[in-house]
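Anyone? Bumping this.
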Amino acid sequence: EVQLVESGGGLVQPGGSLRLSCTASGFTFSDHWMHWVRQVSGKGLEWVSRINTDGTYTHHAESVKGRFTISRDNAKDTLYLQMDSLRAEDTAVYYCILERHSGDYWGQGTPVTVSS
Amino acid sequence: EIVMTQSPATLSVSPGERATLSCRASQSVSRFSAWYQQKPGQAPRLLIYDASTRATGTPARFSGSGSGTEFTLTISSLQSEDFAVYYCQQHSTWPRTFGQGTKVEIK
């Protein structure tokens, strides 16, 4: 059974950093592109970042470019999102997403709150 | 980026009735669209991908149609568990974008 478990969210001050992790199981992690998507409470969904199978290609939304970095460790079946220079507007639930031909699969999300 | 526009924002439907949700893309996405269901406190759940393919576990009362810029999600006979927010999404080009959602509420 496919599972994606996000962790690392929490409360951080503006300007601070957090690293989110997404531990995968139930599929061959190294065969799939992976993504991060976020959702501001009660509002819309925004695609944040994506990474190819071996980590050599990454792409970030303009809103986070230069501040967020997506990476992966295929030996550990884990996806990461390093978030630096955090702002209040980054407050959201962050979801890890498995891209696959049979439709994307989402984790349950980890909340991030940026506030002083 | 491609803008996805959903209508209506809220749909009031009685249990057992049919619900039709619409989504329009600002430019063609071919058949690369999807529909998600989200209930309070939960992650979005994929219902339909590639415009009309039901994801594993999606009940047959959910159907998707359309191509290019116009897409529709139909729920043939609403059950109590179907009252939720529904999002359309395009996966044709980066960044993947979502509609703003349609809330299906009990009439």
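Late reply, but here is one note on the structure posted above: Chain B is about 0% helix and 50% strand.
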